[in-house]
């Protein structure tokens, strides 16, 4: 039987470590992509082989994963300590093997959507949701006024566990006198996360990312809270197109 990779969702994260291709991957507390732990949760499979700090391409759906042992077609699979697919025992079932294989073979896995909402489930039953906003090129001195990115739905609470700015080009004119400030805040201006680009913290190179610092208020967002993004630039700060990516942990409200 032949099976082909059919991603239902493709997205990217900054790699938090060196990651081999075709491994189950998860997300750490900084919002970076890392290898899934033995029996742990996963948000997809790695489609490339990034080094620490590079962009990790991730696929969900029907994915190709390296086997860490003998896996039979139709078996539920979990991750081993290297992010490889092994027959599920006591860990989280990440999917079902469509094709079988022995150790080091590449097998097709239909990943499951686990948890109370769409997204990859955490070990405590919570779910991880990735939210991306694509921003247009901002000319020198141009700002982005508060723009809604996400509203917490009724019946859930949300923690922002990571936020990053991903560059789509080359910035110019950013220095200590002409900073570029990215800020996430609630509608009432409560600060959630942010980063200031200046002579010390350079705007990332094309395809690279910079994590935002999270505030204590980023945890425990409640239904109706709206996460807004604002960008404030100095007179000569000229930004390329960019993406702001949020990694959210969603829990059913008590």
Describe the structure.
With about 250 residues, the chain is an all-beta fold. It folds into two domains: about 5-120, Head decoration protein D (Virus Head Decoration Protein, Chain: A), CATH 2.40.300; about 125-250, Sandwich (Jelly Rolls). It has no helices and 19 strands. The strands form three sheets. Strands 1, 2, 3, 4, 5, 6, 7, 8 and 9 form a nine-stranded antiparallel β-sheet that branches. A hairpin with an 8-residue loop joins strand 4 and strand 5 (about 55-65). The N and C termini lie far apart (about 45 Å). The model is unreliable at about 115-125 (pLDDT under 50).
β-strand percent reads: over 45%
User: Helical region count?
Assistant: 0
What is the name of the CATH architecture of the largest domain? Sandwich
CATH fold label of the largest domain: Jelly Rolls
Largest sheet: 9 strands, antiparallel
- Helix-residue proportion: under 10%
Low-confidence stretches: 114-125
**Which term fits the overall shape?**
globular
Q: How many beta-strand elements?
A: 19
Tell me the span between the first and last alpha carbons.
Answer: 46 Å
Sequence of secondary-structure elements = EEEEEEEEEEEEEEEEEEE
Count of the domains: 2
Radius of gyration equals 19 Å
Query: For the residues shown, what is the average pLDDT?
Result: 87
Helix vs. strand class: mainly beta
CATH class type of the largest domain: Mainly Beta
């Amino acid at each position: 039987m032949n099976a082909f990779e059919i991603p239902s969702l493709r997205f990217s994260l900054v790699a938090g470590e060196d990651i081999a291709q075709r491994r189950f991957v998860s997300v750490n507390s900084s919002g970076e992509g890392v290898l899934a732990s033995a029996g742990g949760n996963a948000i997809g499979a790695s489609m490339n082989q990034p080094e620490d700090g590079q962009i990790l391409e991730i696929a969900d759906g029907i994915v190709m994963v390296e086997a860490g042992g003998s896996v039979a077609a139709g078996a539920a699979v979990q991750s081993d300590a290297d992010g490889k697919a092994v027959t599920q025992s006591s860990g989280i079932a990440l999917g079902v093997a469509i094709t079988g294989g022995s150790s080091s073979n590449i097998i097709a896995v239909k990943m499951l959507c686990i948890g109370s909402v769409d997204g990859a489930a955490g070990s405590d039953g919570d779910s991880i949701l990735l939210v991306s906003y694509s921003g247009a090129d901002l000319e020198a001195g141009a700002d982005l006024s508060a723009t809604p990115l996400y509203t917490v739905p009724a019946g859930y609470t949300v923690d922002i566990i990571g936020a990053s700015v991903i560059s789509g080009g080359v910035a110019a004119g950013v220095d200590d006198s002409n900073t570029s400030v990215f800020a996430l805040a609630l509608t009432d201006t409560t600060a959630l996360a942010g980063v200031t680009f200046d002579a010390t913290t350079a705007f990332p190179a094309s395809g690279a990312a910079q994590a935002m610092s999270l505030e204590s208020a980023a945890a425990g967002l409640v239904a109706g809270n709206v996460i807004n993004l604002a960008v404030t630039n100095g007179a000569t700060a000229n930004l390329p197109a960019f993406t702001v990516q949020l990694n959210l942990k969603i829990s059913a409200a008590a």
